[in-house]
Amino acid sequence: MKERPLPSGAEAQAMIAEARKALWVMVGFLAVIWIVQIVNWATDYALSFDFGIRARELSSLPEALTAPFLHFSWGHIESNSGPLFIFGFLAAYRGVRKFFGVTALIVIGSGLGVWLVSPANGVTAGASGVVLGYFGYIIVRGLFDRRPIDLVIGLVMALCFAYQFTALLPAEEGISWQGHLFGFGSGVIGGWVFRERRRKQVEPAPADPTVMLDPPKQP
Q1: Nearest-CA neighbor of 141 among 129, 128, 157, 165?
Q2: Given a cut of 80, is residue 51 above it in pLDDT?
Q3: CA–centroid distance for 41 within its chain
Q4: Which helix (H) or strand (E) holds 36?
Q5: Of 55-64, 98-107, 131-140, 208-217, where does mean pLDDT reach its minimum?
Q6: Above 90 in pLDDT, residue 152?
Q7: CA-CA to 80 of 20 to 30 Å: which in 16, 26, 175, 179?
Q8: Which domain of life is it from (predicted)?
């Protein structure tokens, strides 16, 4: 397996520019969910119940897109905000446009998993499925893109946040392990779907043989 060299020159400058964009994207994302949380809290969390996911109800399928912006308590949003910012930034720093595609895949995959597998007569909301999706994405991205820096980031995140893997298993009641598991799986799939394609190097065609003519003889 051939690895790509570390970025330098123009590539490094482009990466820094994308990292700045990623920083502001995540600041904006957190600002939105906290503003929504204030409104949600003021309405006694009516938004979470109205726009959260209700398993296997056809009318609730669109809520897969709104549920990640909603939470059920201040503690709920606080526990998600830190990992969301860290994992989201690391998922976006190499390219914001690609990050939006990865995010869409994770949101849809996690939401559909909750809708299909979660127990009936419940409502699921929260950004933790997206958090686990970003976590899965940054762990495998380096393997698919073959970039040393992303391999190191993925390994460090997997070791430092190893406790996140426990969220993929059934735990205490009221925790949507289904959203976590399907979000994580969607992030892993996103690492493959949005991997960097390598251009095949086209070898130049061999030049035509040069025909050497004898110089004209002098009379």
Answers
A1: 157
A2: yes
A3: 28
A4: helix 10-42
A5: 208-217
A6: yes
A7: 16
A8: Bacteria
Spatial CB neighbours of 179, under 8 Å, sequence gap ≥ 6: 110, 111, 113, 114, 118, 124, 126, 128, 129, 132
Beta bridge partners, 129, equal none
The one-letter amino acid code at 67 reads A
Helix or strand run (H / E) with residue 83: helix 74-92
Q: How far apart are CA 54 and CA 48, in angstroms?
A: 11
CA-nearest of 126, 142, 127 to 48 is: 126
124: tokens are 């699921």
Burial 76-95 (b: 16+ CB within 10 A, else e): bbebbbebbbbbbbbbbbbb
Q: CA–CA separation, 18 vs 21, rounded Å?
A: 5
pTM: 0.85
The answer to whether 111 touches 67, Cβ cutoff 8 Å, is yes
Angle between helices 148-160 and 74-92 (to 10 degrees): 160
